[in-house]
Structure formats: C-alpha cells, structure tokens
Amino acid sequence: MDKTWKVVLVFIGIFAAGLVVGGLVTLRVVKYFAPPRLGSPEQFGPQLIKRFTTKLELTPEQQEKIKPVIAQGAEELRQIRRTTWLSSQAVIDRMESEIAAQLTPEQKVKFEQMLAEQRDRLKRFMEERARRMKDGRPLGEGSPPAH
Fold first, then answer.
1. Is 139 a domain residue?
2. How many Cβ atoms sit within 10 Å of the Cβ of residue 138?
3. pTM for the model
4. Does 141 reside within a domain?
5. Are residues 133 and 41 in contact, defined by beta-carbon separation less than 8 angstroms?
6. Out of 73-87, 96-110, 126-140, which region has the weakest mean confidence (pLDDT)?
7. Cβ neighbourhood burial of 13 (10 Å; 0-12, 13-18, 19+)
8. What's the structural domain count of the chain?
9. How far apart are CA 46 and CA 23, in angstroms?
10. What is the pLDDT of residues 54-98, one digit of tens each?
11. Kind and range of the H or E element at 108?
12. 3-class SS at 38?
C-alpha cells in the first residue's frame, strides 16, 4: 500500500512539472504568434495616450485630463502584475519543493537539472525580450525567439 502511494505521488509530481513546463512553452508560443501589443509596461501610458489622441482626435485639454487617469491605471496594472508574479513564484517554489521531497537522490539530481535548464531558458527569453523592447521590436516581429 505504501508503495502505491509513492507511485501515485511521483505521477502527480511528473504531471505538475509537465504543467509548469507546458505553461511556459505556451506563454512563449503565444507571445511569438500574438499580434504586437502596446510594448513594455513603461510604455503603456504614453502609447495609450498617443493612440487615443490620434484615433479619437483629442484636444490638448482632453489629453491633459486623461493623462492622470491613464497614469493611475498603468501604476495599478504594474502593482497587479508584480503581486501576481510574486504569488505565482511562491506557488511554483512550493510545488518544486514538495515534488523534490518525493524523489530519490538520483531523481532529485535530474529534477534540479531540469529546473536549472528551465530557468536558463526563461532567463535567455527575458533578456531577448528586453533587448527587442529596447530596440523597439516586440517578440512578434522578425525572427522567432532564441531557443
């Protein structure tokens, strides 16, 4: 009976790890094929004002009145994004820890290697994203993201 539960827990751990990896791959694919968005969070407010000014033909007075509204909204979105990121990271850390507790020493070594490779891919992706944003090219433009 004890062995059965260990097998079940290992399968749950493998499934959970698959979910994490699948989620990261999905995010990467969606960002590559999705239409370009407004750009980086820092550019959100100015680009939104510019778009509204052009498409709605806003007067200078209207622009001045909506700038604080957009600035406040952009700041709230930054806070939500940060909170969500921290909460997500806490869940992932807990999940990885619980999975590692169910693994043999040999499996733990492989699991840590998998996680290190995953973190390295994510780091390269974020660096590429930052470089493209700095150059004014969202990930959806030009060549696919580096693997």
1. no
2. 19
3. 0.47
4. no
5. no
6. 126-140
7. buried
8. 1
9. 31
10. 898 989 999 899 999 988 988 898 889 889 988 888 898 899 999
11. helix 105-134
12. coil
